[in-house]
Amino acid sequence: MRPFPSDIAFTPAVKALQSQKGSRPRYARIERSGGWQTQVTPDLAEFLDGLDMFYLGTANAEGQPYIQYRGGSPGFLKVIDDTTLGFADFAGNRQYVTLGNLSENPKAFIFLMDYANSQRVKLWGEARVVEDDLALLERLRDPEYPGKVERAILFHIEAWDINCPQHIHKRFSQAQIAPVIEQLQARIADLEAQLAQVHDKNPTSPDTRPAH
User: Fold this and answer.
1) Which CATH code fits 37-163?
2) Residue 9, pLDDT score
3) Domain ranges of the chain
């Protein structure tokens, strides 16, 4: 049992470096004040509900790490209970690196990134593969995605923390940009129609409509 949830990341080696570099007192105060969360809070659930991607980190028995991108409809990473998240796993390139890693080392890491709002959340825990729970697979299935769910991956949260937004470059998804583009296109069409009316009323005036 760890004295503090953050000890999952702040190992003795990490704390020694924090002391050497001068940041240990600040993190010690955070530990004493409650520190990192260990359960899903309403804020975390709301954050998950809007995300359409995340990064999943695993490692094999030798400790070799592997990072995998996961994407889906907003909210596809679902809250199962107050310490468990889950998502559907579909057929991919069939390398099975993540599945192989989890078969010999359950330790895993989820990195959540909201580029548009410059927010990131880090979750430490353990993951396992579930292949024969039809009710769970149906619960995690995206009705808008035609692919067949091959299995579920459940992630048990041991600790999580909201990271500093510093240095995050804003990026926007197609779904976020599409309404803005539609508004601009509608405005352009409206302006072109107004210019056409002005030209029709004054046929001798120069044609100021934009060329296509």
Assistant:
1) 2.30.110.10
2) 94
3) 1-36, 37-163, 172-212
- 121, β-bridge pairs: 112, 162
Residues facing residue 160 across a β-bridge: 37, 123
Instruction: Tally Cβ neighbours within 10 Å of residue 100.
Output: 14
CA distance 202 to 141: 60
Give the tens place of pLDDT for each residue, 73-117.
899 999 999 999 999 998 777 899 999 999 999 999 999 988 767
The C-alpha atoms of residue 92 and residue 103 are separated, in whole angstroms, by 18
- Record the pTM: 0.80
Alpha helix segments (H runs only) across the chain = 12-21, 24-32, 42-50, 97-104, 134-140, 174-201
pLDDT value at position 176?
Answer: 67
- CA–CA dist 31, 153 (Å, integer): 30
